[in-house]
Design brief:
It is built from 19 helices and 17 strands. The protein has 677 residues and is α+β, with helices and mostly antiparallel strands. Among the domains are: 201 residues, no CATH class; 150 residues, Nucleotidyltransferase, domain 5; 118 residues, Alpha-Beta Plaits, CATH 3.30.70.
Length: 677
């Protein structure tokens, strides 16, 4: 069909898709439902004949791994190419915040060409220029609103606007859908659902072809889309195009009732479903037991109220003043569509409004989200024709490339800001990816530098230590020599000290004698001399009466003085039974004693007449230099601890142990009797 929009329709406001892009089937239309619980995807695929194409349409749950599902679906279908940088992504806003209205511009402004008009509109937004209706041309700033300008066939200019944050959210959803393959810049087209549904009706359905006839050019067609999350309506005419579009979110009660996700529950909460089931149960009277009229459920009441509200808002737009302003004759029909599961509730209400208003209502044969997905492709793909027929009937608007992108003065700044933003995000992503690696490398470098520094410092310390060692080596050798000598002396002193304690004469025997003195009998008991025998020393003590004597190494002789003979006898017995450190070891053996009593010195008168005192043969005691009444005593015997130190006698057989000497010895008999007076 020839374009009825004139030469202006081929300008920047016209269908701006490239011919190569419109002929490429590498396109994907993605539509999220109003509640964003389901996703509808559509792509053109070659048909059975040449230059014929069909729609590959699929529905997925929103929580499904859509990226993997689409990749598998395209990999399994040879007619669908894989995603690439040339893929054209098509989607529609789903936040019910879109609006399309005719700008109140003067004839001078409408006479500008497309580039001048865009420049004038950007300046008007900055300077808050008023339109012909004494209201600002732009009610919100362009930085906050994505605006797309479309020149209508009747010469007017219509603006479609959506909050920029919703466009950004839609872009992020597409990026998440692409996944890791998302490039910095990709082909994205964002339109409104009502415009896409109108394009689907006018392009794909035979009822839409009837509306395009010449006799219907002055009639207006109303479009209504109802969903659980919201509804949108608009007006279209062949002579004026899509000149009005408004969208509203559903009331809070509908949003609350539609939170449930169970398919059998119809999307309503359990409380409402329970009340609905109770209301749908038949009621019987007790008297006649017959069924009565079925009670309406709360779900139906809320939905009916919601649908009636949407229809009332639509009929408020169907005013004669609007027709007169646009030079239209009448309203032809109302085309409506809904989400799956709502048509049963909407159809009776639509029939009621149709009967009351006289307008014809037509329901889209497909759910509204599928109709929107098909309308997106009809506006961007040729389907084998020379041009995209749907784009000529209802020209598309791309909210992703709004007026700021098209304005010559703003395009460079906006692209620069976008590049800065993308560069910032890329740097953040690169930093997020490389930060752990950089930290690990920095840690390894720090550890390596610390190890190198440690090795250098250790080498310096070792060099200094070696030099200091060379300087201190003589002193160290002397110290080691001194320590070795000291250690030898300490060991020698320790051994000598031990031997000292074991010496029989030096310490051991004196300790034994000290504890054996009979001071309790004779306090004047006195030891005058103590001798130990050696090779040429004291004769070995023998048994009394034998008269034999020999030099011995372990013989001992003790001499002393006493006043009491019993003290000598007691001292002898103590030595006989004296024990060593070991239990039952004797210290003395073969003991014999000799006692000599002293006499007064002879006078001169008796010297010549008195005989001299007798002495015992072999006695060593003398009575000279002793006071009268003092006894000179002598004890001889063997000291047993000296035996280990005696040199062995190889020629002499081992001596038999001699019995201990009794206390009674002939020493007393041998004592010289005191001279008679």
């Amino acid at each position: 069909m020839r374009s009825t929009f004139g030469t202006k329709e081929k300008s920047a406001f016209g269908f701006d898709a490239e011919s190569s892009q419109a002929a490429s089937p590498d396109q994907l239309a993605v539509v999220w439902s109003g509640e964003q619980r389901e996703v509808v995807v559509a792509s053109p695929i070659p048909g059975n004949t040449a230059n014929s194409y069909d729609l590959d349409l699929a529905r997925f749950p929103a929580g499904f791994n859509l990226t993997a599902a689409l990749a598998m679906r395209r990999a399994g279908n040879v007619n669908l190419p894989q995603f690439s940088e040339q893929t054209n992504y098509l989607t529609a806003v789903s936040d019910f915040s879109e609006r399309t209205r005719i700008l109140a511009l003067s004839g001078d402004v409408l006479a500008f060409d497309d580039d001048e008009l865009i420049e004038w509109l950007v300046n008007a937004e900055r300077q808050m220029v008023l339109g012909t209706d004494n209201h600002p041309v732009f009610e919100t700033a362009l930085e906050d609103t994505a605006c797309s300008i479309r020149r209508l066939p009747n010469g007017q200019v219509a603006m479609t606007e959506v909050p920029r944050q919703h466009i950004q959210a839609t872009r992020e959803r597409i990026v998440s859908l692409i996944g890791e393959r998302a490039p910095s810049f990709f082909n994205l087209t964002v339109e409104t659902p009502l415009r896409c549904a109108a394009r689907y009706f006018l392009t794909a359905l035979p009822e839409g072809a009837v509306v395009l006839r010449d006799e219907k050019a002055s009639e207006a067609t109303a479009f209504l889309l109802i969903g659980k999350a919201g509804f949108s309506y608009g007006l279209w005419s062949p002579a004026a195009g899509l000149f009005s579009e408004y969208a509203f979110s559903a009331p809070a009660e509908i949003n609350r009732l539609s939170r449930a996700t169970d398919e059998n529950s119809g999307g309503f909460s359990p409380e409402v479903i329970a009340a609905d089931s109770r209301a749908r149960q038949p009621q019987y009277e007790s008297s006649i037991d017959a069924p009565t009229e079925q009670v309406r459920s709360p779900r139906d009441e809320h939905l009916e109220k919601y649908v009636r509200h949407a229809l009332e808002q639509l009929f408020l737009q169907l005013s004669p003043e609007k027709l007169e302003q646009l030079e239209l004759s009448s309203y032809a029909q109302v085309v409506w569509g809904s989400e799956p599961g709502l048509s049963e509730v909407i159809a009776p209400i639509v029939a009621e409004y149709s009967a009351n208003s006289g307008l014809e209502f037509f329901q889209l044969p497909a759910p509204s989200d599928e109709a929107v997905a098909g309308g997106l492709l009809f506006g961007s793909f040729t389907f084998g024709d020379a041009t995209a027929a749907g784009a000529e009937i209802v020209p598309p608007v791309n909210l992703a490339r709004d007026i700021l992108v098209l304005a010559d003065k703003e395009e460079i700044e906006r692209r620069r800001l976008e590049e800065v933003y993308l560069l910032k995000r890329r740097n953040q992503a690169v930093f997020a990816l490389l930060a752990p690696i950089v930290l690990v490398i920095a840690a390894l470098l720090a550890i390596t530098a610390d190890l190198i520094r440690t090795q250098i410092m250790t080498g310096i310390r070792e060099i200094r230590a070696d030099a200091q060692t060379l300087n201190l080596k003589p002193a160290l050798d002397r110290r080691k020599s001194y320590e070795a000598n000291l250690k030898w002396y300490q060991e020698f002193i320790t051994q000598v000290s031990g031997l000292r304690r074991q010496q029989p004469v030096g310490i051991g025997m004196l300790y034994e004698l000290n504890s054996s003195y009979p001071f309790n009998i004779d306090p004047s008991f006195y030891v005058a001399d103590l001798k130990l025998g050696d090779a040429g020393g004291v004769a070995r003590a023998t048994a009394p009466g034998t008269g034999a004597s020999a030099n011995c190494f372990d013989c001992v002789e003790i001499r002393g003085l006493a006043r009491n003979k019993d003290a000598v006898t007691s001292f002898l017995r103590t030595l006989e039974f004296a024990g060593g450190p070991g239990s039952g070891t004797r210290l003395f053996s073969n003991l014999a004693y000799e006692v000599v009593e002293t006499t007064p010195p002879p006078t001169a008168a008796l010297t010549g007449n008195q005989p001299t005192l007798p002495s015992m043969t072999g006695s060593n005691l003398t009575n000279s230099n002793t006071a009268p009444g003092v006894i000179a005593w002598s004890i001889k015997g063997n000291y047993m601890p000296m035996a280990p130190f005696a040199p062995p006698d190889k020629n002499k057989p081992p001596a038999k142990p001699t019995p201990p000497v009794s206390a009674a010895t002939p020493a007393a008999a041998a004592a010289t009797p005191a001279p008679t007076p």
